[in-house]
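Memo to structure team: turn this sequence into C-alpha cells by end of day. - J.P.
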Amino acid sequence: MKPEFDNIPLVKNEDKKRFEIEVNGYFAFIDYKENSKQIALIRTESPKELAGTGAAAAVVEKTLEYIEKNGKKLLPYCPYVFAFIEKNPEWKRIVDERFEGYDKL
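Reply from structure team:
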C-alpha cells in the first residue's frame, strides 16, 4: 500500500454493506457479505477520479487486515481481490480453505 493511504481509516459501512475509504471526497469500496465465520468480498469499485492512485489496492489491503484482525475467513469472490491475493500470496493465510478457487491462489 502506498504510504499516503496509511492514515486513511477503513470504514465498515454496515448500512451499505461495504468496506470503504474516502480519498479527496471520493470513495473506493468493496461490497461484502458476512456470517459469523466468513466475510465474502463481492465487488471492488474505485471511481475514475481515483484511477491510478492505488486507492483500490489500499481498500483491499485494509479490508484484508480487518478480516484477519477479526478472526474471520475470506471468500474472495471479487476478481480484483482474487488477483490481489495472487500477487500477494502471504494473504492466502486468511482465505477459507473450502473456497472453490483456493487451489488457484
